[in-house]
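Re: the request from the purification team.
They wanted to know what the chain is likely to look like in 3D before they choose a buffer screen. I agreed to run a prediction and write the result into the notebook, where they can find it.
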Amino acid sequence: MTGENVEIAIPAALDAGYRLFDTATIYRNEEFVGETLRKEMARRGIARSSVFITSKLQTKDQGYEAATTAVNTSLAKLRVDYIDLYLIHWPGASGLDPSDPLNKELRIGSWRALEEALAVGKLRSIGVSNYMLKHLEEMETYANIMPMVNQIELHPAYYPEDVVGYCQSKQIVIQAYSSLGRGKLLEDSFLNEHPQVAKISEQHRVTISQVYLRWALQHGWGILPKSNSPHRIKENANILHFKLSDKEMHYLDSIHIKETQKICWDPVTVM
């Protein structure tokens, strides 16, 4: 989001009950997020301890020294003493071919930097994003602390069961991004292929977006719906008043089996 959109979204989100705000260095809006949160929280009497801020390490900052600097830069831009959750945004490094073994060396250094920042209180929790099964299993060979979170693309059309299963077995929290497939799961072409989605929506008298978000919530995953529309922000949060049946959950679970649709970049090729 741009600065202008941040100034619209954050007040609406706070008023709708949101308390987790997800940003990243690559989004180039940490300063806007930090300043707007500080201002709007003060207006509402909301304490810093009541808000959860996430940021992420960009690919060009992979490696121990660069990651150490990047953490301090994010703290300064957000104007906070600590960041609640800090993630390695991508398993690869910018400028490297995905097959280059230097990717592994750099992300090992990055993780060491995050563990050290955690130890001194600059970060309250650490994790990864877009890590596939091989990246997670590899971490068992070098991590003193396994990631607390793995943030991945996850929706009914893309459901990497191996990654989800591994994270659940290791008590790694799953956070789902692109829960609506960047809008593609709302398009007529997709819904015509999966007509039961609209029927589920009608049955519960909710929007299709709410159906997808509720599906993820019932799986026990964190969800990160993005919007700068106050109406949509409020709607996205309003998913606690209904529950999908086992049959409806099973139908939504099965969509990816019929046709997997990976919407965002695929990290599986990163060595």
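For the purification team: Residues 1-147 form a domain with the TIM Barrel fold (CATH 3.20.20.100).
Please add any questions underneath this entry.
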